[in-house]
Specification:
homodimer, alpha/beta, Rossmann fold, six-stranded parallel sheet, five-stranded parallel sheet
Chain lengths: ~425, ~425
């Protein structure tokens, strides 16, 4: 099947809609099992954790051994390549700096009627971070999930990770140390999320849970939402690239495959105004896959969900991109800011020919946890806000009470809430003011 | 059963924990039915809406009559008390002003390594607002849910409300008009939420859904979360009041009952350092209930969940309040800012003797949609943010690429993602730079 679509073709909009909508997200049957796991951990605490870990992970947990202590963390640091440690440290510094700038600001003012108004942001007490094992065990994700919490000022950071193959990937614990996480437990799966939400002595509960995971972990996060905050409901991820014909086809092919190699339902779409260039990119993608230049998942996701779309003018690609509301949007042109200013929906925009998504995945500074599957229409990437909460502030003396109190009494009365009305009216009367 | 607890009593902490935890939230069996309703609307659109409205609301919906047009809205405006319209207009002006100030700001800067970084906020395209019928039909809620979306710059605001008894409460449509909502449909229940999330021609889908509702509506919002954004998962609400003995017991009693009259599981707790004052407040509450000075729900919720707690010093009340993480906290003392500065968790703080929650419920300016049931530990009230999303921005020239590219290549390689590494390394090589 050809992956080159012409936006001017009569059936294009039908094809394009199908391309955006065919990636499956739901996994049937997971929710019922995960719901049982959560109830079990809520009811039986650590006993349930131990039973579930034995059953699902074939791993014996005890309250004494569940915590991964400083000795194991230091050993992991020592086992890592020095260059990787240096790269993680540079990444951590840049990510922390970006997220410190993203701390929301407090405000306080007096209004014209004499009321003092405002708000203040404070960090949550404790944040939990899930770090998956296996395929998706990325030290960069540890940094991206932990450092916004650090920037927020969260005092207690807890990491949960499946213990079975942790020794194969020492960079996970190294990243945790570099990010300043000092409470790490070797627990994986939905039960780890349940323990974070409800506690499982010696594991104390947290307030917000972040971090990627498989369908079990994601479903558990969705189910505990409301008891705790969660970072997002994540689905298959995607990159859209808008590129003119003056790019190197091999470089744009690498960019498309960098997304495609994430997993079998990842989506990479190139929009270009140069059909010949698009054709060369397709060839470069095929060559790179054939030569093993991309991870094995790319050979599944690219043929299934990848495409090169030829538009008359690059500006036409903006509307098509907005229709998909991509997680990542690269704009590889000489004046990327112009096209970017027209974009309505994107989790992150990468501006210019030298700015691939991969830099953002690791160490540009912005977060790589971003709204997927069209959710950038309404959702934002993980940031410092997620680990803070806002308290609104309101205070008034008699002037403000006199100015707005009678209208408050009128509204309370109209809503049939007499104690609301009395709460304002009694204060007006005590001050010798007319409540009507 | 006495409602006066001494914080110094040996069994106090057990009693207090029970007081905070006994309010039920879950309604068994709702989720399965709501899930079916949502699937039905998703599959059959307006046909499902019509069938469900006939079955649950005994109301015949047609595509031609589902929309509540300008004539009905203007008739409702005319049917309202002039004083109520004026009060709604004052409230709308104040709420809009507060939420315009709360618009998050964009940022863009160059960092030391030559990267251009930043973010920008944009409004969602469309927001949906649910306005319940029956007991909870409050025009103030229409303002509080719609005006943050207006402040965000949302172009399309859609309101759904059960049509059956709308004519009894013209202030609902008046508030919608004052808030600038111009697309209103007479649909209630879980099916209204499903129509907002998935569309039901002629009702186009929205991006974010806000607004209060019963267990069916709340469950539907939770289930569509992820497809669209939702304002919050709300539970039973509460007020905590910290007051010294120099307040008028009748006024503090009215404040407690203003919360208690909301519903049968509302909670009102007074903390005071003056036991005699606490006793007088209890008597004033009983008298006010006996005289019909509070709505009928107060007679259920106050005996079940209300309390006066006597502390040695008012500062001790702050830690107890944080344990409950209340939705609303009133501080009725001469120096409320001092105690407020010590508070870690509260959705909204009302400062001073003249600042009852009721002013905030209607027209102080901050939102009255706030995190309930202890959720102020991690969640914030409804605000302008909820109707906007952030796009992160990153761009670099060759200097920035040279500065951070090699570390990116090292991390991609360590994570086993060759196309990620190639995406950076090919750019470095093309510029004559060393990717290692």
């Amino acid at each position: 099947m050809t992956r080159l679509l012409l936006a001017s073709a009569p059936d294009f909009s039908t094809h394009y809609r199908a391309l955006l909508q065919t990636r499956g997200e739901a996994v049937d049957g997971v929710e019922a099992v995960v719901s049982q796991i959560i109830q079990d951990v809520k009811a039986r605490g650590f006993h349930a954790l131990a039973d579930l870990s034995a059953r699902f992970d074939n791993f014996a947990l005890t309250p004494e051994t569940v915590r991964i202590g400083p000795a194991a963390v230091n050993a992991a640091m020592a086992a890592c390549d020095r260059q990787v440690i240096a790269a993680l440290e540079l990444a951590a510094e840049r990510i922390l700096d970006y997220h410190l700038r993203a701390r929301p600001e407090d405000a306080r003012w007096q209004d014209g009627q004499g009321l003092s108004l405002g708000w203040r942001w404070t960090p949550v007490d404790a944040a939990g971070l899930y770090a998956p094992g296996g395929l998706a065990a990325y030290p960069s994700s540890v940094l991206m999930n932990a450092l916004p919490a650090k920037a927020a000022g969260v005092q207690r950071l807890v990491m949960m990770t499946p213990p079975a193959r942790l020794h194969e990937n020492p960079a996970i614990l190294a990243a945790a140390k570099i990010a300043g996480i000092d409470e790490i437990y070797g627990v994986g799966g939905a039960q780890a999320i349940a323990a974070l939400a409800y506690g499982a002595d010696p594991i104390a509960p947290v307030d917000v849970i972040a971090g990627p995971g498989n369908a079990w972990v994601s479903t558990a996060k969705k189910l505990v939402f409301g008891t705790v905050g969660i970072d997002s409901v994540a689905g298959p991820s995607e990159v859209f690239i808008i590129a003119d014909g003056r790019n190197d086809p091999a470089i744009i092919a690498a960019d498309l495959l960098a997304q495609a190699e994430h997993d079998a339902v990842a989506q990479s779409i190139l929009f270009t105004d140069d059909a010949a260039f698009g054709q060369r990119v397709l060839e470069a993608v095929d060559l790179m896959i054939a030569q093993g230049g991309a991870g094995p998942e790319a050979a599944k996701s690219w043929p299934a969900y990848g495409a090169v779309i030829v538009v008359d003018q690059l500006v036409d690609a903006v509307a098509l991109s907005d229709q998909g509301a991509p997680e990542h949007l690269q704009i590889a042109t000489d004046d990327p800011d112009h096209l970017a200013s027209l974009v309505r929906h994107a989790g992150a925009i990468f501006l210019g020919r030298h700015s691939p998504e991969a830099l953002g995945d690791y160490l540009a500074g912005p977060n790589h946890v971003l709204p997927t599957g069209g959710r950038s229409r309404w959702a934002s990437g993980l940031s410092t806000h997620m680990f803070m909460k806002r308290t609104t502030l309101m205070g008034t003396g008699l002037d403000g009470l006199a100015a707005i109190g009678p209208a408050g009494v009128a509204l309370a009365t109209a809503e049939g809430l007499p104690a609301h009305a009395a709460s304002i009216a009694l204060r007006l009367k005590a001050a010798g003011l007319d409540p009507a």
